[in-house]
């Protein structure tokens, strides 16, 4: 069996489902969730992912790992690579004080607009800065544009072939410093072997793998890698 081909076919099928479900998810949230209730909106998105259409976000089970990481680090400066429809941004800010700003980058304009609508419906759009552009264009200007010395917390969940490139870019411009916590999703499926090899063998980091299942599925293994700069 060609495992690479199986993974590619699986990823392609999921991507097609994801593209078809974005607008439907927005309507579902606006029709079924309580406006201004962050947790209810999170739960509504999870219900949609389990019962309607598969969604490409961290999901409820791996989302608990993200919640715990936020609670442990208690970050004041936060960067997210990959907004998608705003689900993980909701999870992150739900764990933090109202005065904390999350900067999130999303290349796809339709996803960014849907995320903006959902975050506005949740009443938290003032706590999330969505940048609709490619990460390689945005990262070099983050420090200047937002007066940020470094990030306490970085969540990576965008294109898998960009994990390592963007991680190194953040390192090179000094936005990852001592105690920065980096949480990377989908490190098993679709997988980011180059990123894992780099961060696990880098003496500047301590890394821990947290096994789980892929979002809104019971049958496919996945996991999260949490790395902390020494």
Largest sheet: 7 strands, mixed
Which runs of at least 5 residues are low in confidence (pLDDT < 50)?
1-10
Helix proportion: 40-55%
- Reported by name, the CATH topology is Rossmann fold
CATH level-4 homologous superfamily? Vaccinia Virus protein VP39
Mean of residue pLDDT values: 92
Name the structural class: alpha/beta
The termini sit apart by 41 Å
Tally of individual helices: 10
| Percentage of residues in DSSP E strands | 15-25%
Q: Any idea what the CATH architecture is?
A: 3-Layer(aba) Sandwich
Q: What is the domain total for the residues?
A: 1
* Integer-rounded radius of gyration: 17 Å
- How many individual β-strands? 7
Strand order of the largest sheet: 3-2-1-4-5-7-6
Shape: globular
Order of helices and strands: HHHEHEHEHHEHEHHEE
CATH class membership: Alpha Beta
What would your notes on this structure say?
This protein has helices at 3-32, 38-51, 59-73, 87-94, 109-122, 135-138, 142-146, 163-172, 187-191, 193-200, and strands at residues 78-81, 102-106, 128-132, 153-156, 181-184, 205-213, 221-229. The chain is of the alpha/beta class. The chain has a single domain (3-229), classed as Rossmann fold. The protein has a seven-stranded mixed β-sheet, sandwiched between helices. Helix 2 packs antiparallel against helix 4. The protein is globular and about 50 Å long. Keywords: Catecholamine metabolism, Methyltransferase, Neurotransmitter degradation, S-adenosyl-L-methionine, Transferase.
């Amino acid at each position: 069996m060609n495992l690479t081909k199986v993974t590619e076919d699986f990823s392609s099928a999921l991507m097609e489902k994801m593209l078809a479900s974005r607008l439907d998810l927005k309507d579902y949230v606006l029709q079924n969730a309580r406006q201004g209730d962050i947790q209810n909106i999170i739960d509504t998105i999870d219900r949609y992912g389990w019962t309607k259409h598969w969604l490409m976000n961290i999901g409820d089970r791996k989302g608990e790992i993200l919640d715990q990481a936020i609670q442990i680090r208690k970050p004041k400066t936060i960067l997210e690579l990959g907004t998608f429809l705003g689900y993980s941004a909701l999870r992150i800010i739900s764990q933090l004080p109202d005065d904390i700003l999350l900067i999130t980058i999303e290349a796809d304009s339709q996803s960014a607009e849907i995320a903006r609508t959902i975050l506005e419906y949740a009443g938290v759009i003032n706590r999330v800065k969505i940048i609709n552009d490619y990460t390689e264009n945005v990262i070099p200007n983050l420090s200047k544009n937002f007066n940020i010395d470094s990030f306490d917390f970085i969540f990576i969940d965008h294109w898998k072939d960009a994990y390592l490139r963007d991680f190194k870019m953040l390192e090179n411009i000094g936005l990852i410093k001592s105690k920065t916590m980096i949480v990377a999703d989908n490190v098993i499926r679709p997988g980011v072997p180059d990123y894992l090899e780099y961060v696990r063998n880098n003496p500047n980091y301590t890394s821990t793998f947290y096994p789980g299942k892929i979002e809104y599925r019971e049958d496919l293994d996945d996991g999260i890698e949490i790395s902390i700069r020494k």
